[in-house]
Design brief:
The complex is a heterodimer of chains A (622) and B (751). Chain A is of the alpha+beta class and 622 residues long. Chain A has helices at 86-100, 119-127, 131-138, 172-180, 216-227, 243-250, 275-288, 296-306, 308-329, 343-355, 362-375, 380-384, 397-411, 420-432, 443-448, 451-454, 458-464, 497-500, 513-546, 552-555, 561-581, 595-604, 608-621, and strands spanning 6-16, 25-33, 36-41, 46-50, 54-59, 67-73, 78-83, 145-148, 164-167, 189-194, 199-204, 235-239, 265-269, 332-336. Chain A has two domains: 6-101, Roll (PH-domain like); 133-517, no CATH class. With 751 residues, chain B is of the alpha+beta class. In chain B, strands 4-3-2-1-8-7-5-6 form an eight-stranded antiparallel β-sheet. In chain B, strands 11-12-14-13 form a four-stranded mixed β-sheet. Chain B has a two-stranded antiparallel sheet with strand order 9-10. The termini of chain B are far apart. The chains are: A alpha+beta (622), B alpha+beta (751).
């Protein structure tokens, strides 16, 4: 095993189980390395915590057994240590504060992480997701939409990507004019083009309309978007904010579109709250799911008063609005919020996912995140608090998006190629700073950081491990434009236990349907193979018989069990091992995040693998 | 009226509008040109037809096809629009013009001609009819008939009696009455009969099956000589003589002396009893009983008593919770409850009660399994809460009760024969003060286990829902009576009054609910099967050559990175082999197990250790009890609510996919077993042998979700009144100016 370089170690540290009523604890040694906090308990079980995952460290009042230290992680792990000596506790506390909050991008894990790949491999990794290819897949450029070079040098909008698609009839002066009328210069551009309906989802930021200002270029651009849709004259303009917030913005010279000034638009608020409301809602949710999770009653009212599921529902409803506008009315939609990088990203990406089954595949989902989140400038570094920055900029906007997708996978278990582990793994890495994808706040910044030269892309690693992230229930033959129509009545939204309680193993079910099915699948394949083998043997023998060669073997009918049991034995090895392999780790030789192995151990223990095998054997030997 | 003429023009149509009647069923009243409403805000989907009231059901007969409905799970006893009289909860008549409304009780007068009839059903459905075009007098008569016949004053007026009487008359010349009994299991592959526990031998077999050595079947109650609420045969400690039992019985409430339910393989037994009312004798009898139970235990271990009246919610509380749940799921407009959904759900306390029963049962599992102590369930009469707890404990401990025949036998044993008062608790006679949904609560708790351990049960949630529904069809003797004695007494009276020769039979034999072929076709019964369930290995696997495949320690460790904690605990040699940086650590031992913590600590320890082990689906199952694990059983409570439906989604789509897979495994195994040569595809064509509803069409069948699947499958909410129109989409909701949530934080925070 790789040697671990530690900077710090404390013995006799206790790790408390936060859901135990009789304060059960494990005793062990706590180490700090350059990148991780490591706890090895007396049974040699290792708990690794990446410094970047640490959200907050809290030192509680001294107790008789020692000094309690509570670490809250961004991936919702909460660890509660008791350090025997206060001095040690203080040292750990200070070290962690330093290690978990870096001032410079260059100090983040991604810049030192080395998965032992050469430059060309790394570059190929970065080229895996090609957005130009994606727009081609959607069917643009075409007679109505074209690639604009207006932002090629980031001159019009710093937070947009270089390559933007706009209506063919929108000239450059119109684009420039419109961008000056939009907050942060984020003018309306194409996010998703629906080839069958010829309708588009476009995105932008709020207009600088104040109480009465207007901009002819902006009005032209919107008209150009609606004209780019031959099937429907009018378009929807969706302001994802609550109406009151939008009105308040008018006083600051911002605001929303006046329906009278724009021809053929239908304006609509959808009421998703801002990042600050979302941040505090998550905080409340986490408080509830601590100890209150143990009793039925406090939990439900706590969950409700956190408002979290209500916010998830609001995002989902807005996405459904988009999907319906395109599917039912053939109308294009323009989406914005304030700056057009939080709620707009949520709604556009989720809307596209409802409309286009490609985004429900492993690769397609990566493309979707790359397009609507990374390239359009969702401020990952600020929202995830990668650097020691303004805590008011931190907000679980992307987490909400993942949760919406999870709710969809729950409602439509057959329609997604990926499983829950895939979503959890992505969530893990938006905070891990292990890969370059989510560092920085926009493409321009990422280019300046030279991320493609200095760091690795997450996607090829996920694709290599694709097997772990596949949903065995997936039906791949659904049509490209099979629209999902989720039900958003509030009882269809539930607490995402595997996200918010992912480290509280005692709270998880003992068996996972997913594993059972994967085993069933494997079993099927093996049985088919056995049949083919046996058939070919039978045929062989038949031929021998026809040839009139009466071999000795033929006198003794083949004992049916032996070949089967033999293959079943191999089969057993094969099926059980993959279960163990179903680790949500992608670090290869890196021991980081040992929790994946805990997770997998949990699952690999599930009995059905063996039972189903017996069953298979039973059938074969009867 | 125009519609009327229209209908008369097409005469052949009218002829077809005849009700389908069962033997003994008669039409008591009918009215034509009735509109059945499908949506509240539009009449465009309404159906035209005839409404009849029989002595079994209300039936709406129409030629119109059901709009928007993609699938209908057909019950052979009932038409698509029928409601059994015993399923009716409330009858509301309305007159639009006079703005009058009246809830109809039995023998009541109606002073206005109704323009509308709304039926609230016990299974959460709401059905609405309009009489705008029908004769006002006949409409009124039908309403009154429904009110009268759905609220009978006497048990013998329930339809089952008429039905069985007819059957006996029809078969008067044959030797026996109608064939009854356990029925053919759930159909499909299982042909096992469900033991009804009416006979000595059924109990004897159960004693032998569980290996209960210190227990015997006792027949002192033959002919119900001792108690009218006990079965004729039951199981008691071998050391108690019949004479003792007879003496003791007087001291128990309802003479319900201790009844054996089940024995663990370690010898500890589960026993249920009523309280001893005779205070003077209490200690003495209690002592004798306890001693006898101890003597029946191979280790002579103690007896643990569980006073259910003190630890669990009472039946009134449960009824109140259920009424609130019904309000929440059915009556209140959804827009109003949406934002308060979670707290409203919590406010019903239903989930809290379900959890309480699961929790208490799990604690008793610990006592039986780990402490190896016999458990006595005590309850005032011992025939309500005891039924739920005794059944749940057995479902958790004994995998047999997780199969379809096993589960059915459990219901026979702990509910039907043990004198659960189905008549009163289901309120078939509408004397509402005794109503309580304990049986449904049991099904709900079983569903929670099924939801947590989806591969441990032979049956599906559809089976549980259908079983719940069957309690509201007044045809099955299973759910009609307060006790087996009541069946014998009432049906003998009935037979005498109807001149039916009973011969040697003890009372009339009613159809059993376990004869599922009465309600569903063989194909439809396959929906009862859980595709994830893997049966206990068939006996032939038990030969030595296959035993090698059982999980051994070696196999076990090969699947893990290290040894599981349970095997490693306290093994110092293991630790020595691992690299150590500090010799001090070697002295650190794992914390000593908290033995000294008394029962509660032991309980937690038990739960914890159980969770550390791989779940044995054919062993003990313990429920997860945290709030995120106890869920609302949506299929049961929301299946009639159109707004709750997820089209082409929900768990059923996974069920569909799994069925295809399981079917594929079945076909392949069968092919392999038979060494059949020939194209593999041909094997998929055989339809007869599948236990799955959805069949694979060939290897690697990846057909997508069928159009007709929705989250309420196999039930269809179409045809039941919904609050909003079916066409109500989020889009139109937004455009019609639905309320926008106001920001809860100050606007200054806006980004």
């Amino acid at each position: 095993r790789k040697r671990i370089y530690t900077t710090f170690e404390v013995e006799q540290v206790k790790l408390l189980d936060r859901f135990s009523t009789n304060n059960k604890s494990l005793t062990g040694t706590l180490y700090l390395t350059a990148t991780h906090l490591l706890f090895i308990d007396s049974q040699q079980k290792e708990t690794w915590i990446l410094h970047h995952h640490i959200g907050s460290v809290e030192k509680l009042a001294l107790t008789t057994s020692g000094c309690p230290l509570v670490i809250q992680c961004k991936n919702f792990r909460i660890v509660h240590f008791i350090v025997p000596r206060e001095r040690d506790c203080h040292d750990i506390y200070n070290s962690l504060l330093q290690l978990s909050k870096q001032a410079k991008y260059e100090d983040l894990y991604a810049f030192s992480y080395n998965p032992k790949q050469n430059d060309s491999e790394r570059l190929r990794g970065w080229q895996l997701i090609d957005l130009a290819e994606e727009y081609k897949r959607m069917g643009v450029p075409n007679s109505n939409w074209q690639l604009s070079d207006a932002n090629r040098e980031y001159k019009i909008c710093e937070t947009y990507p270089r390559e933007l698609y706009v209506p063919r009839i929108a000239s450059k002066p119109i684009i420039v004019g419109s961008s000056k009328f939009r907050s942060k210069g984020r003018f309306p551009v194409l996010s998703y083009y629906h080839q069958n309906k010829e309708a588009a989802i476009c995105r932008c930021s709020q207009p600088l309309s104040g109480f009465s200002a207007r901009c002819l270029e902006d009005e032209h651009l919107l008209q150009a978007i609606s004209k780019a849709n031959p099937a429907n004259r009018y378009m929807y303009v969706v302001d994802t904010r609550p109406k009151l917030n939008a009105i308040a913005n008018r006083a600051a010279g911002k605001g929303y579109e006046n329906e009278d000034n724009y021809s053929n638009i239908r304006f609509q608020f959808v009421g998703i709250e801002n990042i600050h409301v979302m941040r505090s809602s998550l905080q409340k949710l986490l408080e509830v799911n601590g100890t209150k999770g143990l009793s039925v009653n406090d939990f439900y009212s706590g969950l409700e008063s956190s408002g979290w599921l209500r916010h998830i529902k609001a995002v989902m409803d807005a996405a459904i609005f988009l999907a319906k506008a395109i599917m039912v009315e053939n109308a294009s939609v323009l989406v914005h919020c304030s700056d057009g990088w939080d709620r707009t990203s949520q709604v556009c990406s989720l809307g596209s996912l409802l409309l286009d089954s490609y985004y429900r595949t492993v690769k397609g989902f990566m493309v979707l995140i790359e397009k609507d989140w990374i390239s359009f400038g969702h401020k990952f570094s600020e929202r995830c608090g990668h650097l020691d920055g303004d805590p008011k900029e931190v907000s679980p906007v992307f987490t909400q998006f993942l949760e919406c997708v999870w709710h969809l996978t729950e409602q439509f278990p057959q329609d997604f190629e990926f499983n829950e582990a895939f979503l959890l793994q992505i969530h893990e890495h938006i905070h891990s700073c292990q890969f370059g994808n989510f560092l920085g706040n926009c493409q321009k910044e990422r280019e300046e950081l030279k991320l493609k030269e200095k760091t690795y892309s997450l996607w090829p690693f996920l694709l290599d491990d694709q097997k772990k992230y596949l949903n065995p229930l997936y039906s791949s033959n659904s049509q490209k434009f099979a629209v999902l129509e989720p039900n958003t009545a509030s009882f269809n939204f539930k607490f995402w236990r595997n996200m918010y309680h992912q480290f509280d193993r005692t709270l998880h079910p003992r068996e996972s349907v997913c594993n059972i099915i994967m085993n069933m699948n494997e079993q099927n394949k093996q049985l088919e193979k056995d049949i083919k083998d046996l058939e070919s043997k039978i045929n062989k023998r038949k031929n021998e018989q026809i040839d009139g060669v009466l071999t000795k073997e033929l006198l003794h009918p083949v004992h049916p069990e032996s070949p089967i049991i033999k293959t079943s034995l191999c089969f057993k090895e094969q099926t059980l091992l993959p279960v163990n392999d179903t680790l949500r780790t992608i670090e290869g030789s890196n021991p980081a995040d040992n929790r994946y192995s805990e997770y997998a151990e949990e699952f690999s223990k599930s009995e059905p693998a063996v039972v189903s095998l017996e069953y298979g054997v039973a059938r074969m030997t009867c | 009226p125009f519609q009327a003429e229209d209908a008369f023009d097409s005469e052949p149509k009218i002829k077809k509008l005849e009700p389908v009647l069962l033997p003994g069923e008669i039409v008591v009243n009918e009215v034509s040109f009735v509109r059945k409403c499908i949506a509240t805000d539009t009449s465009q989907y309404d159906l035209w037809g005839k409404l009849i009231c029989s002595n079994f059901k209300i039936s709406f007969i129409t030629d119109d096809p059901m709009p928007l409905q993609k699938f209908h799970y057909r019950n052979l006893l009932l038409g698509e629009h029928d409601v059994p009289l015993t399923c009716i909860e409330q009858i509301v008549t309305v007159n639009d013009h006079k703005r009058k409304q009246k809830v109809l009780g039995p023998n009541q007068k109606l002073k206005f001609n109704p323009t509308e009839l709304i039926i609230y059903c016990k299974d959460f459905r709401i059905v609405r009819f309009r009489f705008d075009e029908s004769g006002p007098e006949s409409a009124k008569k039908v309403c009154l008939a429904i009110a009268h016949y759905s609220q009978p004053t006497d048990l013998q007026l329930l339809f089952a009696f008429e039905y069985v009487g007819k059957k006996y008359h029809n078969s008067a010349n044959t030797l026996n009455g109608i064939p009854t009994g356990g029925g053919g299991g759930a159909g499909g592959g299982s042909s096992q009969k469900t033991p009804l526990f009416e006979t000595y031998s059924d109990w004897d077999r159960e004693v032998k099956r569980t290996g209960a050595s210190g227990w015997r079947v006792c027949s002192i109650n033959e002919g119900y000589m001792i108690s009218t609420c006990l079965p004729e045969y039951f199981v008691v400690p071998s050391s108690l003589a019949d004479q003792d039992l007879k003496t003791f019985s007087h001291s128990f409430v309802g003479r319900r002396m201790p009844l054996w339910c089940w024995s663990h393989s370690n010898g500890s037994a589960l026993v249920r009893t009523a309280l001893i009312k005779d205070l003077l004798q209490q200690r003495k009898i209690d002592q004798r009983i306890c001693n006898a139970i101890t003597k029946s235990h191979p280790q002579r271990s103690d007896v643990c008593k569980s006073d259910l009246d003190k630890t669990l919610p009472n039946i009134q509380d449960i009824q109140v919770a259920f009424v609130k749940l019904k309000q929440l799921c059915v009556n209140e407009p959804f827009e109003e409850t949406e934002e308060r959904w979670l707290s409203s759900l919590e406010g019903t306390r239903w989930l809290e009660y379900v959890r309480a029963f699961l929790k208490h049962s799990a604690e008793l599992v610990y006592t039986l399994e780990s402490r190896r102590v016999s458990v006595v369930l005590q309850e005032e009469e011992g025939r309500d809460l005891s039924c739920v707890v005794a059944s749940l404990v057995q479902v958790m401990l004994d995998p047999y009760f997780r199969t379809i025949p096993g589960f059915q036998s459990l219901i026979q044993k702990e509910w039907v024969m043990s004198g659960y008062q189905f008549l009163d608790r289901c309120n078939h006679l509408k004397r509402s003060e005794k109503e309580s949904p304990l049986f449904l609560l049991f099904l709900d708790a079983t569903w929670q286990l099924l939801d947590q351990y989806p591969a441990a049960f032979e049956f599906s949630e559809t089976y549980l829902a259908v079983l719940g529904d069957s309690t509201r069809i007044s045809l099955f003797g299973t759910f009609l009576f307060n006790s087996p004695h009541q069946r014998v007494k009432q049906s003998t009276e009935f037979a005498i009054s109807k001149n039916i020769q009973l011969g040697d039979e003890k009372g009339l034999k009613f159809p059993s609910v376990w004869d599922w072929s009465l309600q569903f076709t063989a194909k439809d019964r396959t929906l009862f099967h859980n595709p994830l369930y893997i049966g206990r290995s068939t006996p032939c696997v038990r030969n030595s050559s296959v035993k090698a495949f059982k999980r051994t320690k070696k196999n076990y460790s090969s699947t893990l990175r290290g040894m599981p904690a349970s095997l490693r605990n306290g093994l110092l040699s293991d630790q020595e082999s691992l690299p150590r940086r500090n010799s001090l650590i070697l002295q650190v031992r794992p914390d000593p197990p908290p033995h000294a913590q008394g029962q509660d600590g032991g309980l937690e320890q038990f739960f914890r250790e159980w969770r550390c082990k791989p779940a044995d689906l054919h062993g003990v199952l313990l429920p997860h009890l945290s709030a995120t694990h106890i869920k609302l059983w949506k299929l049961c409570y929301f299946r009639w609510v159109p707004e709750a439906q997820i089209n082409r989604g929900g768990f059923v789509t996974a069920f569909h996919r799994l069925s295809l897979l399981a079917d594929e495994v079945d076909v392949l195994s069968r092919t392999l077993r038979q060494h059949r040569a020939g194209p593999l595809e041909a094997c998929y064509a055989e339809l007869d042998q599948s236990r799955m509803y959805f069949r694979a069409r060939g290897p690697h069948d990846t057909s997508g979700t069928p159009e007709f699947l929705s989250s309420s499958f196999p039930f269809s909410p179409v045809g039941n009144l919904c609050r909003r129109s079916i066409s109500g989409t989020p889009l139109s909701k937004f455009l019609s100016g639905a309320k926008i949530w106001l920001s809860t934080e100050t606007l200054a925070n806006e980004d």
